[in-house]
Write a structure and sequence with these properties.
- There is one protein chain.
- The chain is 33% helix and 10% strand.
- With 259 residues, it is α/β, with parallel strands linked by helices.
- The protein has a single domain, classed as Glycoside hydrolase/deacetylase (TIM Barrel).
- The strands form two sheets. Strands 1, 2, 3, 6 and 7 form a five-stranded parallel sheet that branches.
- Helix 2 packs parallel to helix 8 and helix 7 runs parallel beside helix 8.
Length: 259
Amino acid sequence: MAPAPTESPTPAPAPNSAALATPAPATPSPATGTPAPATATPAPSSPPASAAEPLPRVVTAAESRPVYELDAGRKVVAITVDDGPDPRYTPAVLALLDQYGIRASFFLIGENANAHPDLVREVAARGHHIANHSWSHPDLSGLSAAKVRDELGRTSELLGRLTGRAPTWFRAPGGGWSPTVLKVGAELGMRPMAWSVDPQDWATPGTDVITKRLEKELRPGAIVLTHDGGGDRSQTVAALKTFLPLLIDSGYRFTAPPG
Ligand SMILES: [Zn+2]
């Protein structure tokens, strides 16, 4: 099957994949424990070229409201994948997306990203959109502004360090949006993304049920919520195996949010 073209909802400045391909700042690889061979040339001791932290993207008031759907006038869909990365399921989801040439958005949990940094880099290197899903997946709407800032800020810092690009979108766990959550997210330069299609795959209702819910609720402009972490996600992976080719056969194009 031919790979599906990826569309941008707006005249995109630069494809996200290009930006995401920016190499992360050089960090010592934990895998290579051997010390560097001594050379006559002293190692440069200058700080990284861009020592100054880039300012967060300015989020307007209109942009600080959760986005539930994309342009319903076009046959586009955004696949979003939450709660990873998880070494048990994320590679399988990546392989499926590769197989069908689909670019998706991964809303990563900071704790999981911290445990599996190579998987975060892998998701970004394959051109998918990396977004912030808090550090420890609490109901952010029940937290103080300081705690929300800690949950979102730590995660953005980590994802930015791992991928070379700070997230510009976030999603409150369980859709726990509150004025405080939206305000802090905006201050950190992120727009809130909700969803319009929820097959409740997290409750493991069975592959067929997940697939049928996806098919039934799908419509142009949908933002589809799925999970590759947080529990046994083998049913989700199996449902995507059926659902993704069906989307392509139905003429859908795939989009990730603009950076
Ligand atoms: Zn979640």
